[in-house]
Write a structure and sequence with these properties.
mainly alpha; elongated; transport; translocase
Length: about 100
C-alpha cells in the first residue's frame, strides 16, 4: 500500500470515526459526512491516474454532484431544525414526540 492510498483510507476512516463519536450537533455530523464524500471523490479521481488508464470516468463528477445535493439538503435541514427546535443538538430530534 502506497502512502497515497494510506492517506485516502485514513481520511475516510477519521471522518467515519468523527461521525460515530461526535454526534452532539447536526453541523458536526454534516461536516463529517462531507469530508467522507470528499475523500472518496479524491480517491476516485486519482484512480485512473494511478492505474495509467487513458479513459475518463464519470463516477467522480456524479459523486461530486450528489455530495453537493447532500450538503444543500443538510443545510436546509439544519436551518429548519434550528428554527423549530431552537438548536442543532441531535438529542432534541426525537421522532416520537412529534
Amino acid at each position: 500500500m502506497t502512502s497515497l492510498h494510506l492517506s485516502f483510507y485514513s481520511a475516510f476512516t477519521l471522518s467515519a470515526l468523527g461521525l460515530a463519536f461526535h454526534r452532539t450537533h447536526l453541523i458536526s455530523a454534516l461536516l463529517c459526512l462531507e469530508s467522507m464524500m470528499l475523500s472518496m471523490y479524491v480517491a476516485l479521481a486519482m484512480w485512473p491516474i494511478q492505474t495509467h488508464t487513458p479513459s475518463f470516468s464519470m463516477v467522480p463528477i456524479l459523486m461530486l454532484a450528489f455530495s453537493a445535493c447532500e450538503a444543500g439538503t443538510g443545510l436546509a435541514l439544519l436551518v429548519a431544525s434550528t428554527r423549530t427546535h431552537g438548536s442543532d443538538h441531535l438529542h432534541n430530534f426525537n421522532l416520537l414526540q412529534c
